[in-house]
Amino acid sequence: MLGVAFLFPSTFLSSFATEKFAPFSTSWRTAKLHTVLFVPWFRSNSRSLNAPSQHVAVMLHEVLEALEPRPGMVFLDGTLGGGGHTKALAEAVKAEDKGAAGLVIAFDRDPAAIERAEQTLAGLPVVLANANYADAPEIIEELQLPACGEQAAPEEVVPDGAVLDGIILDLGLSSDQIADEQRGFSFHSEGPLDLRFDPTRGEPAWRLINHLRPENLADLIYKYGEERMSRRIARAIESERRKRTLESARDVADVIWKAVPAAVRHGRIHPATRTFQALRIAVNEELKWLEVALQRLPGLLKPGGKIAMISFHSLEDRLVKQAFRDDPRLEVITRSPRRPAEAETEANPRSRSAKLRVARRMVDGGSQS
Ligand SMILES: C[S@@+](CC[C@H](N)C(=O)[O-])C[C@H]1O[C@@H](n2cnc3c(N)ncnc32)[C@H](O)[C@@H]1O
Question: What is the rounded distance in angstroms from the CA atom of residue 45 to the CA atom of residue 65?
Answer without folding.
Answer: 38
